[in-house]
Predict the 3D structure of the following.
Amino acid sequence: MKMTTSIRFLLACVALMTSGLLMTLSGCSNSEASSSTAGSITPRQFADGVHAVMMADRTVYATHVVTNLKKQDAPVTADEYWQDTENAIPLPAQMFRMGAELVDENPEAGFTYALRSKWPLNEQHKAKTDFEKEALDFISDNPGDNFYGEEELGGKKFFVAVYPDRAVAEACWSCHNDHPSRGEDYPDFAKDDVMGGVLVRVPM
Ligand code: HEC
């Protein structure tokens, strides 16, 4: 895996945190990044670590920004059409996609991630490769399990991890089940259903 300094730094942080060492993020300095720990992290540990950060950020945004505004009856609401609506901010899934798009454009990132679903409201979230289709089938058929594997794209090898994205709150299924973009075969999602997957793709 070809790694830039920033990726090495992130890997070192993730490795140190996942190995259970007591440390704070601010204590993870560049000098630690150059220690041997950076060399020993596996692509799977890297994917698990960045996935944990992504989901934490999404949960914090959904809970402490979107839901908090609703609770306060604030004049600002999360709205799919936030760009054309006054006092509106993006939905958590849109925040997630826009972040993924920025990482995709950043040559220093060294990896990519995306939301995927067998039943996408946004066509951009459809499976793009046979591997992705297999992964989405697997996480739907084995709720709670992640899917890990290797994929070759354009002559390059990637480690790919796909994590289930589940209906954890009523807002998830009520918004999706009533959405005008739902297709003919759209399921009636209920609590804990796997609604899609978060994919992390790391070059090997
Ligand atoms: C207010 C409506 C709303 C709520 C609440 C909501 N979503 Fe979505 N979700 C959307 C929309 C709209 C998209 C497409 C966003 C885009 O354009 O990227 C989407 C995208 C997704 C996707 C990618 C596949 C697709 O359908 O395009 C998944 C998976 C997903 N949401 C799961 C969830 C989960 C899990 C929750 C609860 C934690 C949730 N959503 C809450 C509206 C919602």
Q: What stands out?
A: The first strand starts at residue 77 and ends at 78. Residues 42-203 form one domain. Strands lie at 77-78, 88-89, 112-116, 147-153, 156-166, 194-203.
